[in-house]
Amino acid sequence: MRFVRQNDLKGAKRVTGRGRGGVRGGIALLAVAGVVSGCGGGGGGGAEKALERGSAGLRGGAEAGAAAGTAEPAHGRPGGARQHGQRRLDAPAARALDAYAGKVRRAHAARVAAAKRWGLAKVPLSAPAPPARKPELRTRKGFEVDGHVEDGLPPVFTTVPTRHKVVFLTIDDGAEKDPAFLRMMTDLRIPYTAFLSDYLIKEDYGYFERMRDRGVALHNHTLRHRHLPALSYAAQKREICGMQDVLEKRYGTRPTLFRPPYGSYDRDTLRAAATCGVEAVPLWNEEVFVDRWDYRESDRELRPGDIVLSHFRGPSDWKGTMPDMIRRFLNLVTAEGYAVARLEDYL
């Protein structure tokens, strides 16, 4: 039986540090409404000053127009110069811009404080607004199984098609349940996607419920994390569909994404996944640990739309904590000019 195995780390390229200069982030002025929602990026005073200048210009223009008798008349009143005793019209656009500028400043200040609190080298960059039209997902060349397209099997990919400098963080299994990790990701407002296995999360379903309540999507990584190509079709289906049932029962949503353990799958895996309601199989192009990065590509470079893998692990498995891993992850992607986007927004 032909199968594909993706994470043979023996041949993986490793790097222990990067010496590149950082890319300084900025706040996109007015064009990106997502800044206010919590994805404000690095940059600082330039954006605030620009907003203040724009606000002042709107106010000044409105006042000058009113003084010259060119302000719009109130509804039901004649136009022309302001009549005796008539109130001068305000400039609602200027007031709205002032309020927006205040929100931007507060969001940026909170992000700067969070980055400092969690020991980051720089403030994480802001992701652009999600695409209105989702990219077409295709199976990466060499990752196909027999009859992949003809049978309409879910696409298997390591990178999402996009021109934006964004990457997607995904975290597998559920072994470590570190409250500090939840606090860190909430403070920094960094999106990520979890692929969970029941035999690990059943120790504390509540931890992942709190994760879900913070807006994290919970997806399928099978019931017991077995090597699926070694199993029959029926056994693979039980592993995948059984985890679909657990996630729906515990967290209220039946996932559409599935990641096979070890990145290993065959035609039966994808057939079973499709039967269970899976629409796509995201793998990864890089993997981040506490002490290093591993790369699928030989040039060891990030690419727009790359999916990055990590695991729920702590000091018992790593030489550090999950917040340590996130620091390594964010410091590198920020230095290379990448923002972290939400995977589900692109699928």
Describe this structure in words.
This protein is an alpha/beta fold. It is 33% helix and 12% strand. It contains eight helices and twelve strands. The chain has helices spanning 45-67, 92-117, 179-188, 198-201, 205-213, 233-251, 267-275, 322-335, and strands at residues 3-4, 13-15, 156-157, 166-173, 193-196, 217-220, 265-266, 281-282, 286-288, 293-295, 307-311, 339-340. Strands 2, 4, 5, 6, 9, 10, 11 and 12 form an eight-stranded mixed sheet that branches. The protein is globular, with a radius of gyration of 25 Å. The relative contact order is 0.18.
How do you describe this structure in short?
The chain is an alpha/beta fold and 347 residues long. 33% of the residues lie in helices and 12% in strands.
Tally of helical segments: 8
Rg, nearest Å: 25 Å
Helix content percent band:
25-40%
Q: Which sheet architecture does the biggest sheet show?
A: 8 strands, mixed
Cα shape: globular
Task: Give unreliable regions as ranges.
Answer: 8-84
Query: What structural class is derived from the secondary structure elements?
Result: alpha/beta
Distance between the termini: 30 Å
Number of strands: 12
Overall pLDDT score: 82
One letter per element, helices H and strands E, the order comes to EEHHEEHEHHEHEHEEEEHE
Strand content: 5-15%
Which helices and strands appear, and what pairs or packs with what?
Blueprint: E1 3-4, E2 13-15, H1 45-67, H2 92-117, E3 156-157, E4 166-173, H3 179-188, E5 193-196, H4 198-201, H5 205-213, E6 217-220, H6 233-251, E7 265-266, H7 267-275, E8 281-282, E9 286-288, E10 293-295, E11 307-311, H8 322-335, E12 339-340
Parallel strand pairs: 3-8, 4-5, 4-11, 4-12, 5-6, 9-11
Antiparallel strand pairs: 1-7, 2-10, 9-10
Helix pairs in contact: 1-2, 6-7
